[in-house]
Design a protein that fits this description.
This protein is an all-alpha fold. The protein is built from 4 helices and no strands. The chain has a domain of 75 residues.
């Protein structure tokens, strides 16, 4: 008789997450995108809120909730959104690749003619 319903379960090899409410990269990006889309007609208001989010990202990084790589991606997106003109604003919002978690800014290559 090898079957017993009350036996101890083997321990999982996965590391236990202490805080189940930690945000992943997609969640951080989604919050930024939602903020921008809610204020798509008011880019200046969205820029003000993005600056506030940057402070939250800094605090989250210090607390260990946000990784440096994720913050770097968020900051790259924020830089584009904060420094663009109002005409470019809508282009960034409509660019689906811009909102993907693996997006990286296009490298500046001076050798192109």
């Amino acid at each position: 008789m090898g079957w017993w319903p009350f036996a101890k379960k083997p321990k999982s090899k996965r590391t236990r997450v202490e805080d189940p409410l930690l945000k992943d990269a997609r969640t951080w990006i989604s919050e930024l995108r939602d903020l921008c889309e809610m204020n798509f007609e008011q880019p200046e208001e969205a820029r003000r809120r993005i600056r506030h989010m940057q402070v939250e990202w800094h605090d989250a990084l210090e607390q260990g909730v946000l990784t440096a790589a994720n913050r770097e991606g968020l900051e790259a997106r924020a830089f584009r959104l904060l420094s663009c003109s109002d005409e470019e604003w809508m282009q960034w919002l409509d660019d689906l690749d811009f909102w993907k978690s693996g997006w990286k800014p296009a490298p500046l290559n001076d050798n192109e003619a």
